[in-house]
């Protein structure tokens, strides 16, 4: 069955998001009681280029199915009537758009005369069964923002905390919002706003063609080619207007490449490019503090000083006079290059092929630890790393319209029942890569921690004992080797500033610390050692010197992370649509859509903490040399003074243990050193070291390396989960290759839209299949499989209670015991007699967390935690295939036109989304499960899709000829949301934390939207949303720290709950026919404002330096202040020549320059004062510093700088001037 379904999915492979976007209408004679005009020729044009043609049926109806969203012109020709054209018809995605044409024969036909009428968008869209908003390219150009999320946030029900912030749609989490570009779901949006033809925000009433989403959809349609060659250019800058240095330049080219005999363009293209540069891509509304350049230079020379007999961080003595207050974050540059293109070939009137492509290249310099512990900004911003990302997307779409437009056959007078049939085939490839590293060292991993050359020698030490042959005599013997530091040369350092941490010791490059050659055990001169004689050594800096007051990282800090990701996405789609018209096409049309979708992801990630390589290497390089033995070979002899006697003592080679490990062997092979000779890793140059000297296990055991889709050296690996545990036949060892994450998603849907007694119904059914395509633990309560009750009692006797199932896990009273202590099925626990309990805490012995399950494989009892590391372990001992998830999702909606001026609508949707986070668990995680259970959170590949049930009812009514009011009430129920959970009790580790489908939430809301079309030069779009978004968790980790045994099941306001939100977009524009002075013609002003009541937070009563503890009141029971934002743009179109135009504009974000609050300190509710200094804890802190070596004034100055957190406020006022040229 599964193979049959998979084959079917592969054959069909998915739907197009543009399925059943249609343009329909009726052509009538306005002079004759609006009689229909059959067989009229109807043609649509896009950007001046012929797009498609048809003829009207017997009832005068025309229908264009399966067309792209956008803006069209429509021309109708009919014998005896002058040609009539409707211009600027907006066609919205996913719905049938209506445009009726009225023709008149009065006055006859004038040659070369076309009657042109501007299309008036109807206020009441009776066919629209979805909630949301569509924004056209003209509206986008007039808005005072260039950010897609900000544009989307003006929709009722959509919210964003700040401009460009993540979008929450109707109380859903931000990761529940999906983005589509030209019908393809994308992971990254890299489309400039100037290339957007239409942006659609769908907040509810999702059609069956949408899937794998539980929030909403932001769908972008890009512009197509033009009938004439056109060049568009744009430039924008904030230079000279504000301090943030934002600029962009862009250009696009479009036009035909080939025309047919009718001079219609049949091959056309559109190419665009945009480059954006931002000196500061996240401006701060509060001052930014950065130490002065001369202060930083002095600190870099001497980062550590000696005062009062103590070694202290020199930066601890800085005062407020040593720092500059800045408006722009230093060393935070960002740049983006976007390239987009499409080519469309119209092979015939019925077949077209479109090839689109996009490329994005981004670089973003950032401050590590920004606004948190270890902030680099004050002292180390000059070393800020840069994150790089690139993405490309290619898409090929074949569209074939099979015909059947409803025209009567011959003279029969009957129209065909099956009409407007078409299908699409579409294939998409997307790739996204990213990387980040320290800018000074890149992939030179051993440079990250290198601070110089340490000359370390290993000298013999000797012991004495009575001679066994003559007890009165003393025997001297070589007992061991001692590590002796001879000298330190900092001149070879790869990190000169880190090297200067050792300056206060006063060591010279030629200084000899220890000249000992040999000594008795405990004798000789002891000089400085690596562990105690330096502030920093290769790979490690004493934590005492790494930061200033615990707030800011010290100068010279190295970014200790190398990371890269590589994500591929392959999507194949197909869909079909057609109309069934058994009777009159006006009343009995059934619009059928059906399709399938197949998607395969391949995700890879690799991260390394390079500085720790020196520490790991130091631990491993001589670990095979434990001591010396008298039977070892003699390598030398020394004369040792013992009292007045001089004794000759043999120097023995070290003992060599043949232990597992690669590094100690590989480094000696590279250096040409025998195994029984010590190696000083700190005397080597970084260029002599590399990752391949280590084995995978040596690096992964120490948690400095994590990866999937790569081998441990960072080379791509394409194997399976099982390959990790497969022994290499040549070495007998595991290669530790981790397979990439390769989830598979597939879906199929069918939908019918039809009308009964003027009521428009949309009935859809969608089936989604999700396969994580990996192995998961057989039992999340145990690393190893536990025997079932049937097998246990069959093998070991005893009575199995009647209510205990065959596969219930069995726990015994002792290790490998036979006396039952408890049974368990999933999360349900039972006593030995089968009585159910409320949890393991009610069972004697089990409640302690020390449990003894009866394992299915007896070998586990012998090896315990190390069984997974043994050669006897097999994948079946712990893992099973992911259980493929099938979800059947009904989609129901209807629209009831009460009259031409009012409409009632409602919908019911069931939505699911594959696990958006916490789902990539690898064999590497399980291999070190026992070692890491107490210190990390594990991902869980067994997560199920999240689920949402969405209800809505609404009413829309016309208020005047140019205005309408929409009222909507909605309810959402969210289940199986991902949240942290702790499993207890778990053998070997007692408990561990992972993710599970635990969270639940409800959203209740009411939305009111007022739409005023152009009236007296004004347009207004205003909406108000009242919402109650409650749940058990706001994100996948929000319950961390709230309890480790059982999740909270009480609903509380979610972090992104906004009780009241009001949005307003007001546009005032004068056209060329205005009576205003001519210089104001084609000019306008656009204002966009939002007012939002504060989001919730959890108040605390114990102030801490930068937070608080001890919950005061309920979770999220307090509210932040109201936020008010006003943005504006003034623009003017200037026409020159015949077809050339320039649009000049000046726009301002946050005109009022309000410091809107996004977060507060939980103990005070203030965004600028945690309340710590006034508390007893703060007063104790100050008293402890008074009279000490470090001045209180320095602490207070640094603390006050650090308290001002830019993340607690919205973006400040920003101003831009720009121009858009159309030639």
UniProtKB/TrEMBL annotation:
Residues 126-216 form the TonB-dependent receptor plug domain. GO terms for molecular function: carboxypeptidase activity; siderophore uptake transmembrane transporter activity. GO terms for cellular component: cell outer membrane. It is found in: Cell outer membrane. GO terms for biological process: siderophore transmembrane transport. Keywords: Carboxypeptidase, Cell outer membrane, Hydrolase, Membrane, Protease, Signal, Transmembrane, Transmembrane beta strand, Transport. Its main location: membrane. Residues 877-1069 form the Outer membrane protein beta-barrel domain. PANTHER family: OAR PROTEIN, TONB-DEPENDENT OUTER MEMBRANE RECEPTOR. Belongs to the TonB-dependent receptor family. This is Carboxypeptidase regulatory-like domain-containing protein. It comes from Neolewinella lacunae. The lineage of its organism: Bacteria, Pseudomonadati, Bacteroidota, Saprospiria, Saprospirales.
């Amino acid at each position: 069955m599964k193979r049959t379904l998979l084959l079917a999915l592969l054959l069909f492979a998915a739907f197009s998001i543009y399925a059943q976007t249609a343009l329909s209408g009726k052509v009538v004679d306005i002079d004759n009681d609006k009689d229909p005009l059959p067989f009229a020729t109807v043609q649509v044009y896009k950007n001046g280029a012929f797009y498609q043609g048809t003829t009207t049926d017997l009832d005068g109806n025309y229908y264009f199915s399966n067309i792209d969203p956008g803006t069209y012109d429509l021309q109708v020709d009919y014998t005896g009537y002058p040609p009539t054209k409707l211009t600027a018809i907006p066609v919205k995605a996913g719905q049938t758009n209506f445009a009726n044409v009225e023709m008149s024969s009065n006055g006859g036909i004038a040659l070369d005369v076309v009657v042109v009428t501007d299309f008036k968008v109807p206020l009441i869209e009776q066919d629209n069964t979805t909630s949301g908003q569509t924004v056209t390219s003209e509206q986008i150009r007039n808005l005072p923002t260039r950010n897609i999320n900000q544009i989307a946030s003006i929709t009722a029900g959509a919210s964003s905390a700040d401009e460009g912030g993540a979008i929450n749609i109707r109380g859903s989490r931000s990761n529940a919002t999906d983005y589509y570009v030209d019908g393809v779901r994308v992971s990254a949006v890299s489309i400039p706003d100037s290339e957007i033809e239409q942006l659609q925000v769908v907040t509810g009433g999702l059609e069956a063609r949408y899937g794998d989403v539980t929030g909403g959809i932001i769908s972008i349609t890009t512009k197509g080619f033009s009938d004439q060659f056109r060049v568009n250019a744009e430039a924008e800058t904030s230079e000279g207007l504000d301090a943030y240095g934002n600029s962009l330049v862009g250009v696009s080219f479009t036009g035909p490449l080939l025309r047919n005999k009718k001079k219609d363009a049949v091959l056309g293209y559109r190419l665009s490019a945009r480059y954006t540069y931002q000196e500061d891509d996240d401006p701060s509304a509060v001052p930014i503090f950065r130490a002065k350049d001369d202060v930083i230079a002095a600190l870099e020379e001497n980062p550590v000083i000696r005062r009062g007999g103590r070694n202290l961080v020199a930066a601890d003595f800085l005062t407020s006079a040593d720092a500059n207050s800045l408006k722009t974050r230093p060393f935070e540059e960002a740049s983006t290059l976007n390239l987009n293109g499409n080519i469309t070939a119209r092979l015939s009137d019925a077949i077209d092929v479109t090839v689109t492509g996009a490329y994005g290249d981004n670089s973003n310099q950032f401050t590590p630890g920004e606004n948190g512990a270890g902030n680099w900004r004050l002292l180390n911003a000059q070393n800020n790393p840069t994150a790089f990302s690139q993405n490309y997307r290619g898409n090929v779409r074949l569209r074939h319209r099979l015909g059947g437009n409803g025209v009567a056959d011959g003279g029969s007078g009957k129209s065909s029942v099956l009409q407007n049939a078409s299908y699409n085939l579409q294939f998409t490839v997307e790739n996204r890569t990213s990387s980040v590293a320290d800018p000074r060292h890149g992939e030179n991993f051993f440079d990250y921690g290198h601070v110089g050359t340490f000359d370390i020698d290993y000298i013999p030490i000797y012991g004495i004992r009575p001679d066994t042959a003559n007890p009165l005599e003393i025997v001297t013997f070589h007992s061991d080797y001692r590590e002796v530091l001879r000298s330190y040369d900092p001149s070879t350092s790869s990190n000169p500033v880190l090297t200067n941490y050792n300056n206060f010791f006063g060591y010279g490059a030629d200084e000899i610390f220890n000249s000992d050659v040999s000594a008795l055990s405990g004798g000789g001169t002891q000089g400085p050692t690596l562990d105690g004689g330096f502030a920093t050594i290769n790979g490690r800096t004493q934590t005492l010197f790494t930061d200033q007051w615990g707030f800011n990282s010290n100068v010279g800090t190295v970014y200790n992370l190398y990371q890269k990701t590589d994500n591929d996405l392959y999507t194949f789609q197909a869909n079909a649509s057609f109309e069934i018209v058994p009777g009159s096409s006006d009343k009995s049309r059934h619009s059928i859509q059906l399709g399938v979708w197949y998607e395969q992801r391949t995700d890879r990630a690799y991260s390394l903490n390079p500085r720790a390589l020196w520490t790991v290497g130091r631990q491993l390089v001589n670990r095979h040399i434990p001591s010396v033995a008298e039977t070892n070979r003699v390598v030398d002899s020394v004369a040792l003074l013992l009292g007045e006697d001089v004794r000759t003592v043999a120097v023995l080679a070290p003992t060599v243990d043949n232990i597992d490990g690669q590094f100690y062997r590989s480094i000696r092979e590279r250096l040409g050193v025998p195994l029984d000779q010590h190696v000083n890793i700190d005397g080597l140059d970084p260029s002599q070291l590399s990752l391949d000297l280590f084995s995978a296990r040596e690096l992964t055991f120490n948690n400095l390396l994590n990866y999937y889709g790569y081998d441990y050296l960072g080379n791509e690996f394409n194997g399976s989960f099982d390959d990790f545990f497969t022994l290499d036949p040549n070495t007998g060892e595991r290669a530790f290759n981790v397979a990439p994450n390769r989830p598979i998603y597939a879906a199929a849907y069918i939908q019918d839209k039809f009308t009964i007694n003027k009521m428009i119904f949309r009935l859809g059914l969608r089936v989604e299949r999700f396969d994580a395509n990996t192995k998961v633990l057989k039992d999340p309560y145990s690393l190893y499989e536990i025997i079932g009750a049937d097998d246990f009692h069959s093998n070991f006797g005893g009575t199995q209670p009647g209510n205990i199932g065959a596969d219930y896990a069995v726990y015994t009273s002792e290790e490998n015991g036979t006396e039952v202590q408890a049974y368990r099925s999933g999360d349900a626990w039972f006593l030995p007699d089968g009585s159910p309990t409320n949890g393991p805490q009610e069972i004697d012995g089990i409640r302690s967390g020390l449990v003894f399950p009866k394992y299915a494989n007896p070998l586990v009892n012998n090896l315990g935690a190390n069984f997974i590391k043994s050669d006897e372990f097999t994948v079946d001992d712990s893992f099973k295939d992911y259980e493929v998830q099938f979800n059947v999702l009904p989609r129901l909606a209807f629209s009831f036109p009460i009259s031409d001026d009012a409409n009632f609508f409602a919908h019911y949707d069931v939505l699911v989304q594959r696990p958006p986070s916490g789902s990539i668990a690898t064999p590497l995680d399980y291999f070190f499960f026992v070692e890491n259970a107490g210190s990390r959170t594990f991902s869980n590949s067994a997560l199920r899709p999240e689920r949402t049930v969405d209800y809505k009812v609404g009413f829309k009514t016309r208020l005047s000829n140019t205005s309408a009011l929409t009222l909507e009430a909605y309810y959402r129920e969210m289940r199986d949301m991902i949240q942290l959970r702790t499993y207890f009790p778990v053998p070997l580790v007692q408990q561990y934390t992972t993710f599970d489908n635990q969270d639940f939430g409800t959203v209740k809301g009411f939305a009111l939207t007022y739409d005023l079309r152009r009236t007296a030069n004004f347009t207004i779009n205003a909406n108000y949303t009242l919402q109650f978004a409650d749940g058990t968790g706001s994100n996948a980790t929000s319950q961390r720290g709230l309890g480790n045994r059982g999740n909270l099941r009480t609903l509380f306001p979610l972090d992104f709950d906004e009780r009241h939100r009001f949005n307003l977009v007001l546009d005032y524009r004068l056209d060329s026919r205005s009576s205003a002075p001519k210089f104001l013609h084609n000019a306008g002003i656009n204002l966009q404002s939002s007012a939002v009541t504060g989001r919730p937070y959890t108040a605390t009563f114990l102030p801490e330096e930068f937070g608080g503890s001890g919950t005061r009141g309920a979770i999220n029971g307090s509210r932040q202040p109201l936020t008010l934002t006003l943005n504006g743009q003034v623009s003017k179109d200037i026409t020159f020549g015949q077809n050339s135009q320039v649009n000049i504009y000046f726009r301002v974000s946050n005109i009022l320059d309000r410091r809107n609050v996004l977060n507060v300190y939980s103990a005070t509710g203030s965004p600028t004062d945690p309340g710590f200094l006034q508390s007893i804890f703060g007063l104790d802190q100050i008293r402890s510093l008074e009279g000490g070596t470090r001045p209180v004034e320095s602490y207070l100055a640094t603390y006050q700088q650090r308290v001002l957190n830019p993340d607690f406020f919205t973006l400040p006022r920003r101003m831009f001037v720009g121009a858009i040229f159309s030639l």
